[in-house]
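#structure-requests
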Amino acid sequence: MDIKRDITLQQRVLVVGLGLMGIKLIAWMVTGANAIFSDMMESLVNVLAGGFALFSLRLASRPKDVNHPYGHGKVEFISGAIEGVLIVVAGILIGGKALYDTIHPHEVSNLDLGLYLTALAGGINFFMGVQLVKRGKAHHSMTLISEGEHLKSDGYSSAALLVGIALVWVTGIVWLDNVVAFLFAVFILVVGIRILRKSIAGIMDEADFDIIVDLVAHLEANRKPNWMDIHNLRVIRYGRALHVDCHLTLPNYYNLEQVHHEVDVLEQLIDAHFENPTEVFVHADPCKPACCELCSMVDCPIRSDAFRKQVPWTVTVLVENSKHQL
């Protein structure tokens, strides 16, 4: 199963993260550089967040139960939020230490060794981050995406730190170390706030318009004449699983079996469009005389008005909680 492979991947990332944190800790101890301390602190955040990410992936993999009828996928957003908070806290600590050491300077040494160790750790982090983001996007896992984006940012920041450390090494201007550390603190604060914002959006069931736009285009391309309209369309994400519900207007003379068939067709159409697990609920509405001018059915036995125009199915039209009108 995909979720099991995701868990295995996260376990490997956590083990490697522990090793990288050890490398950066050694680099900081031998150099005393604030810039390397900053990098080491972010690795500590990586390990803490990675541990909770692993826990959340295991919890999200559990099947639905009585207490969690929509599954356990929401924990992935909580995992992302915790990671965002940890990154923000690390940024504040790094910035604070940089300011303190500007007022109370200290000596740095062995910067050449620090450069090599930082380059090694940053390169490995970036590679792991790319793999996690790629897999997370493929399977709509907020946990893997958050963890991967954090590791990628660690790789970028390590590259920037290398430039800063090299400047200190070449010029001998020690206070540049604190400037680099402070700039790094600002950078990871921005990363943390972005991850936190995206995670809170998922917890609050904020509409994901990328998914909705894609789904609406799919429905428009496959609409049927007897589907007079689809309205009150909503898409909610539960981790990697989606919940879709909407109202479908059908001819009011259809019997229960015919209505059930059309609802099944629509549910299968939506479910087949997404790779990840998708739960679809469709509420059937009967048509009214006002629907006739929008209905293109040629053999309707109860038509009270001539067909005038078909309303294009757009996001604005389908999310509105009312039958379509001209």
